[in-house]
Amino acid sequence: MLVETVHAPSLHYSNAMDTSALYNIGYGLYVLTTRHDGIDNGCIVNTVMQVTSTPLQIVVSVNKGNYTHELIKASGVFNVSMLTTETPMFVFEHFGFQSGRTTNKFATCEAEHRAVNEVLYIPKYTNAYLACRVSQSIDFGTHTMFVAEVLDAQVLSDKPSVTYDYYQRHIKPKPEINYDNAKNGKRCWVCKVCGYVYEGDELPDDFECPLCKHGKEEFEEIIVETQNVASPKNDNNTKIHETHCIAPLQNNCAMKQINLTENIFYVGVNDRRSERFENHMDLPNGVSYNSYLIVDEKVALIDPVEAGFIEEYLFKVKNVLQGRKVDYLIINHDEPDHSSSIAAVIREWPEIQIVGNAKTFAPLEAFYGPIENKKVVAEGETLSLGKHTLQFFMVPMVHWPESMVTYEQSSNIVFSNDAFGGFGALDGGIFDDQVNLAFYEDDMRRYYANIVGKVAMQALKAIEKLGGLEINMIAPSHGLVWRTNLAWVLGKYTQWSKQESEEGVVIVYGSLHGNTGVMADIVARGAAEAGIKEVKVYDIAKTEVSFIMSDIWKYKGVIIGACAHYGSMFPNMTLLTHEINEFKPKDKVYGLFGGMSWSGGGVKTLAKCAEEGKWNLVADSVEVKGAPIRVEDWDKLYNLGKAVAQAVKG
Ligand code: FEO
Questions:
Q1: Atom of ligand 1 nearest to the CA of 403
Q2: Lowest-confidence region among 248-262, 325-339, 488-502, 504-518
Q3: Is the pTM of this model over 0.70?
Q4: What is the pLDDT of residues 49-64, one digit of tens each?
Q5: Measured in angstroms, how far is the CA atom of residue 176 from the centroid of ligand 1?
Q6: Max intra-chain CA distance, the chain
Q7: Quick one: which atom of ligand 1 is closest to the CA of 335?
Q8: Is the peptide bond before 55 cis (omega within 30 degrees of 0)?
């Protein structure tokens, strides 16, 4: 072989070079094996190329640090086994993430498969092998390029060869970032192979990942914002959320699909790990983030899911699609419990069109940065997918200004966004006829009261707007899919939206040392003896406000008691009175009571809230000095409960 020097013109290197462009070279992935002095070894390489047919020659480039390189230098023989798309990750880990200097990679081989050069080849997860003898080598500094004659070549299967790109997209698990070494606002470098995080202003050129042994080229810079959220510097600051979900190693994993119709699928996820919804409403039963997939000539996804569930979500979507891509992502609602995985969805299907209305994109881009492939739809506009046609209706403020619902005309399914949703993970039952509705109603009403209740009038208008459509199924963004009990759920939503209260009294108290709590019991006796069977007593320090608001929404009577605290009222009560005055539940009758120590303040502050919120007080407020141990105080409290009960009964 003659190596000639070419005299090229003198030019400067670009200052803006993006070396990731080299990943787009159409590399394959191979196991390179050799044998010297009775030692078998192999490693993963991606640079194998046929250079001549006569004689039949190939070249392979090998890192000088590899033990395989050392053995080939000594033996002058090697084999190339060509990996297929079915190769599981452990094969790459076995040959690529450990050194033959410390591990015998063939110690557990079930059977020896040796080629004519006595070198092992890999019979499984491969589609061919080449047995070679080195004829020349060229030193490229960090690597040696071996030129070799092909002594034998055999086809082993008809499976497609794996490319480097396919490996990156479908085989290599997304690393779970280990934040142990990262602190808020610090410059860090994350290993793209294993997720190890190195904190420091610069990553040394000779840095080697202590976990997976990959070099600097496999690290990318991140800036850690919180313990669990990071922004990749080179990706428009789009956030990566911590995920704990399934990320299958093999692309042939599969699960059963959940069908709404033959070609419309449920692909949502359950969240049982978040303690609170919107970080302030307790989730004892979890919550679901619903998403739907329509497969036709074009494929549409209706709303994605919360970003922490992206691996599980993409697995479910791809499980249905079997290699097809998604053409449209319909954004019914910008709120991040749905939209926060939009960047990951776009990364997965870069040509996807994001469909929203005139109000969708400004908030969406404020959250996630510029979106290139937008499609703006107007009220009543349609989008054909083939046999399916989507039609869009605006329902502003149910729950955000940009909220819309999507109606599929051939199946008469309305994808209703937050409307008709509910708290509670979907515990096996996805559809309304698969669960006990009485059990589900409380979680649904709590969701309504705290999410939609503030905009009850708009919810009512949305219901009226949908009333003109033929509806076979209601598919909301949280909770059950309604296909059987449509009248029941429409009735409940209409009742809650019209704020038609039921007979009952909610008594809420805040007490430092228990005396106002004893008063609450006396008030409750008065209400019960006046004939109210639904009397609910809550300690504001124990029960999270969303549960109380849910019952306030339901029942007509509301009696609130607070002891004094530094001239004002028991502090936890402030949130509840704020919520009542914010949500302004209608058709209520109120009463007030509380304990007085020092110069009081509890009842006085409640009275101020009542005045601001224009509460309908139906009895004189009761303020008790110290504890309710005097008969006259007992009578006043009892009569307060009785008076509110009588007003409830009308
Ligand atoms: Fe489920 Fe308003 O977000």
A1: 2
A2: 248-262
A3: no
A4: 999 999 999 999 999 8
A5: 27
A6: 113
A7: 3
A8: yes
